[in-house]
C-alpha cells in the first residue's frame, strides 16, 4: 500500500466534515455523527501514517502533482505523524466530552451549528501545520487555527470571553505579522519557502542574515508556544473559555508552536548560535510559570500557568540539540498533550460538580465523588513527575540529556527542572487538598449552594426522564473521555520503552536531516 495517498486526508477530511456539519446545522444528531465519524477516521489514518513513516520513511504527497519546491508538499515523517496521531486522539476525546456537555446544558435536540464546523476546522489547521512541508503552508495552518480558535474562545458571548478573545487575537495577529515578515525575508534571501530546499540554502547565507531570519522565526513561534517572556497572554485567555475549548487549546495549540520550533531548529538551523538563548528562555519559562501557578487560587488559572511552565521542558530538550535531548523533548510533548488536556477536562467536571473552580469555594469532593477524585489525582501526579508515571520518565530523560551535555548552563537547567517539578507537585497537592480533601466552604445565609441536586445527589428513580438522561450523560459522557485520557497517560508509562524507541528514531532523523530532504526532493536537489 502506498501510504502517501493518505497524507492529505487529515487536512481534507475535517474541512469536508466542517462543510457537511454546517449544511446539517438544523440537526444536532447529524452534526454529532459527522464530527465523531470524521475524527474517528482521522485516528485510523494517523495510526497508519505513523506505522508507515516508522517502517518506510517519510510519506510525501505533492499537492496537485506539482513537485517541491514549485508546489505544496505535505510530509508525514516520524515526528509529524506521531504529533498528528496524539492530536486527533485528544481532539476526539474532547469532542465526545463536549457533546455530552452540550446534551446536558442544551438538550439532545438543540443544534450547535457553529461549534461543530469550527472545531473541525481547528483540527484541520492543526493537521495542516504538522504535515506542512513549506513555511508558507505552515503559516496558513496557523491562520486557520487563529480563525477557528477565536470563534471557539468567544462562544457564549460573555464579556469575559470577548475580552479574553480580543487579547488572544491581538497577540496571535502580532505573531502572525512577525511570521509573515520572516517569510518574506526568507524568500527574498533564498528564493524558496520549501523546508527541504531551505535546509541547504540557508547554510549558504551570511551568518548575520541567517541569524536574523532565525530570530524572527523563533519569535513568532515562541509567542504561539507561550515561551517566556512572550507567554503573559495565555493565563488570561484560556480560563474564560468553556471547559472543552480550554482543554483542546491547552493540549494542542501551544504544541503546534513547539512543533514549529523543533522542525525549524533541527532542519533549518542545525548548528544554531542561539542555543544558550534557548536554554535561558527554557529556564525562565519553567521557573516563572510555576511560580505563577503556585500563587493561584483558581484551578483553571493554576493549570494555565503550569501549561506555560512545562513548555520550558520541551524548549530545554530542543536547545540541547542532541539525540537524547530531542528524543526527550518529543516524548515530553506527547506526554504533555495528553496530561494537560486530561486535567482541563477534569477541571470542567470539578466546576460542574462543585459549582466553581475557585479553590476557596471548593471542598469535600473526594467524599462526594471518589471517581472524580481519582480522575484528578492520577494526571496531577503525572504532571508533577511522580515515579513511575510518564511525566517522571520524560523529565528524567531530559535531565539525563542535560547531564550528558556537560555544559554549565545545562546543569543549571537540570537544577531548574528539579525545582519546577517539586513546585508543580506542591501546586497539585494544594489543589487536591483544597478541592477534594478539606471540608467544603460554608455558604453565606441565603446563598445558592455550589451545585444543583442533579449534580450533587444520587439520581432519583422518580426524576423526569430528561433529568435522568442528562445525569447519565454527565457522569458517563463527560467523565468517560477524561478516563480514556487517564488510561492513555498510564499506557505511556507501561509502554515507555517502545515509545522512547520511536522518539529516539524520530530524533535521529531530525538530526540527520537527509531522510526528510531526500523524501521531499528526490536526489537532494538544491
Key features of this structure:
CPA3_Na-H_Antiporter_D, single chain, NADH_UbQ_OxRdtase, 526 residues, 75% helix, mainly alpha, 2% strand, two-stranded antiparallel ribbon, NADH dehydrogenase (ubiquinone) activity, membrane
Characterization of this structure:
It is a multi-pass membrane protein. The longest helix has 32 residues, at 159-190. The chain is globular, with a radius of gyration of 23 Å. It has one domain (3-441, 459-520). Helix 3 (78-106) packs antiparallel against helix 4 (115-131) and helix 3 (78-106) packs parallel to helix 13. The protein has a two-stranded antiparallel ribbon with strand order 1-2. 75% of the residues lie in helices and 2% in strands. It is an all-alpha fold. It has 21 helices and two strands.
Which strand order does the major sheet show?
1-2
| Parts with pLDDT < 50 across at least 5 consecutive residues | 103-111, 444-466
Number of strands: 2
Instruction: Output the number of helix runs.
Output: 21
List the helices and strands and how they pair.
Layout: H1 9-23, H2 28-56, E1 59-62, E2 73-76, H3 78-106, H4 115-131, H5 135-153, H6 159-190, H7 195-201, H8 207-225, H9 234-237, H10 243-267, H11 275-294, H12 299-320, H13 323-354, H14 365-368, H15 370-384, H16 390-405, H17 408-437, H18 453-456, H19 465-494, H20 496-512, H21 514-520
Antiparallel strand pairs: 1-2
Helix pairs in contact: 1-2, 1-4, 2-3, 3-4, 3-10, 3-13, 3-19, 4-5, 5-6, 5-10, 6-8, 7-21, 8-10, 10-12, 10-13, 11-12, 11-17, 12-13, 12-16, 12-17, 13-15, 13-16, 13-19, 13-20, 15-17, 15-19, 16-17
Amino acid at each position: 500500500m502506498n501510504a502517501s495517498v493518505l497524507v492529505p486526508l487529515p487536512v481534507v477530511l475535517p474541512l469536508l466534515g466542517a462543510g457537511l456539519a454546517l449544511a446539517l446545522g438544523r440537526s444536532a444528531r447529524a452534526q454529532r455523527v459527522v464530527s465523531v465519524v470524521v475524527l474517528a477516521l482521522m485516528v485510523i489514518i494517523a495510526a497508519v501514517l505513523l506505522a508507515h513513516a516508522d517502517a518506510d520513511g517519510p510519506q510525501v504527497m505533492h499537492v496537485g502533482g506539482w513537485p517541491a519546491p514549485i508546489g505544496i508538499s505535505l510530509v508525514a515523517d516520524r515526528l509529524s505523524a506521531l504529533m498528528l496521531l496524539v492530536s486527533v486522539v485528544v481532539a476526539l476525546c474532547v469532542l465526545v466530552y463536549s457533546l455530552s456537555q452540550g446534551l446536558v446544558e442544551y438538550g439532545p435536540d438543540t443544534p450547535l451549528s457553529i461549534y461543530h464546523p469550527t472545531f473541525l476546522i481547528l483540527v484541520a489547521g492543526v493537521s495542516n501545520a504538522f504535515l506542512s512541508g513549506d513555511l508558507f503552508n505552515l503559516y496558513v495552518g496557523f491562520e486557520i487555527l487563529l480563525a477557528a480558535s477565536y470563534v471557539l474562545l468567544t462562544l457564549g458571548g460573555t464579556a469575559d470571553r470577548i475580552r479574553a478573545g480580543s487579547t488572544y487575537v491581538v497577540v496571535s495577529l502580532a505573531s502572525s505579522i512577525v511570521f509573515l515578515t520572516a517569510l518574506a525575508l526568507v524568500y527574498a534571501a533564498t528564493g524558496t519557502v520549501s523546508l527541504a530546499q531551505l535546509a541547504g540554502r540557508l547554510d549558504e547565507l551570511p551568518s548575520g542574515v541567517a541569524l536574523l531570519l532565525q530570530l524572527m522565526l523563533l519569535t513568532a513561534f515562541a509567542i504561539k508556544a507561550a515561551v517566556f517572556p512572550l507567554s503573559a497572554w495565555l493565563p488570561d485567555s484560556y480560563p474564560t473559555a468553556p471547559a472543552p475549548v480550554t482543554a483542546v487549546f491547552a493540549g494542542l495549540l501551544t504544541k503546534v508552536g513547539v512543533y514549529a520550533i523543533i522542525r525549524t531548529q533541527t532542519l533549518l538551523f542545525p548548528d544554531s548560535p542561539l542555543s544558550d538563548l534557548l536554554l535561558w528562555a527554557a529556564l525562565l519559562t519553567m521557573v516563572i510559570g510555576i511560580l505563577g501557578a503556585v500563587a493561584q487560587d483558581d484551578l483553571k488559572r493554576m493549570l494555565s500557568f503550569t501549561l506555560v511552565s512545562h513548555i520550558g521542558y520541551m524548549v530545554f530538550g530542543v536547545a540541547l540539540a542532541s539525540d537524547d535531548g530531542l528524543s526527550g523533548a518529543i516524548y515530553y510533548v506527547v506526554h504533555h498533550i495528553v496530561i494537560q488536556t486530561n486535567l482541563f477536562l477534569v477541571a470542567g467536571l470539578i466546576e460542574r460538580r462543585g459549582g466553581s473552580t475557585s479553590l476557596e469555594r471548593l471542598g469535600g469532593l473526594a467524599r462526594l465523588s471518589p471517581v472524580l477524585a481519582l480522575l484528578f489525582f492520577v494526571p496531577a501526579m503525572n504532571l508533577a513527575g511522580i515515579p513511575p508515571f510518564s511525566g517522571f520518565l520524560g523529565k528524567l530523560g531530559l535531565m539525563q540529556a542535560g547531564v550528558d551535555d556537560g555544559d554549565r548552563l545545562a546543569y543549571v537547567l537540570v537544577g531548574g527542572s528539579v525545582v519546577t517539578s517539586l513546585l508543580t507537585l506542591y501546586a497539585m497537592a494544594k489543589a487536591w487538598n483544597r478541592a477534594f480533601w478539606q471540608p467544603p466552604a460554608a455558604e453565606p445565609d441565603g446563598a445558592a449552594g455550589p451545585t444543583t441536586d442533579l449534580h450533587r445527589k444520587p439520581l432519583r428513580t422518580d426524576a423526569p426522564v430528561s433529568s435522568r438522561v442528562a445525569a447519565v450523560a454527565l457522569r458517563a459522557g463527560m467523565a468517560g473521555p477524561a478516563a480514556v485520557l487517564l488510561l492513555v497517560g498510564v499506557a505511556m508509562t507501561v509502554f515507555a520503552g517502545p515509545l522512547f524507541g520511536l522518539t529516539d528514531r524520530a530524533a535521529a532523523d531530525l538530526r540527520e536531516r537527509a531522510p526528510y530532504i531526500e523524501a521531499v526532493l528526490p536526489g537532494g536537489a538544491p
